[in-house]
Design brief:
By secondary structure, the protein is mainly alpha-helical. The chain has 8 helices and 3 strands. The radius of gyration is 16 Å and the shape is globular.
Length: about 210
């Protein structure tokens, strides 16, 4: 059973002009697909061949297999990232809104914190909105292929701050990309589902 390469949950031009169709076609169709293909090639014929992507990531981390970890974690991170955005992001409500207000003071303050963390993140990586086991929210950062698919945090949303996520559209001005995505395209329904479930999102199996 190979790890699936999931379709985007919206059309390639659905996030334009924040993220162009050209960027999504390259980012999803080339970068993400390459990570999935390399993960599948690495586990073929091994005891991980039928494992979930989350189990592959955990095993690679435990074994110190950096190549497998990088490709499997990036496969997961990218799928989670696509779902973290939406053509119309809406606004948080209910329990998620209450948790945001408790942790950050307001939704605007959270968005500003995400933007600041992303702009200040050195080199490649990811910025996350995450929840602890008790539901308390925080903004987290991981470097390179670092992921919250494993560990003690429950990721609710993520923003990709690798250069290929924004360079075609915003050149080297990462703050412009972060502002464009975080003020109009954060998928608050997805975040609310992840928060309500209280456990780490599962990578799609088909």
């Amino acid at each position: 059973m190979a790890i699936a390469f999931p379709d985007l949950p919206y059309a390639h031009d659905a996030l334009s002009p924040a993220i162009s169709a050209d960027t999504l076609q390259t980012h999803h169709g080339k970068h993400h697909k390459a990570y999935v293909d390399k993960t599948n090639a690495a586990v073929e014929g091994t005891d991980l061949a039928d494992a979930s992507l989350e189990a592959i990531i955990a095993a690679a981390d435990e074994k110190g297999d950096k190549g497998l970890f990088n490709n499997s974690a990036q496969s997961w991170n990218h799928a989670f990232y696509w779902h973290s955005m939406a053509p119309e992001g809406g606004a948080p409500s209910g329990d998620l809104k209450a948790a945001i207000d408790a942790a950050f003071g307001s939704v605007d303050a959270l968005v500003e914190k995400l933007q600041t963390a992303g702009a200040g993140h050195f080199a490649s990586g990811w910025v996350w909105l995450a929840a602890d086991a008790d539901g308390k929210l925080s903004v987290e950062e991981t470097h390179d292929a670092g992921t919250l698919a494993i560990g003690g945090k429950n990721p609710l949303l993520t923003l990709d701050v690798w250069e290929h996520a924004y360079y075609l559209d915003h050149k080297n001005v990462r703050p412009d990309y972060l502002k464009a995505v975080s003020t109009g395209h954060l998928n608050w329904d997805f975040a609310a589902e992840n928060y309500a479930r209280g456990s780490i999102w599962s990578y799609p199996s088909d």
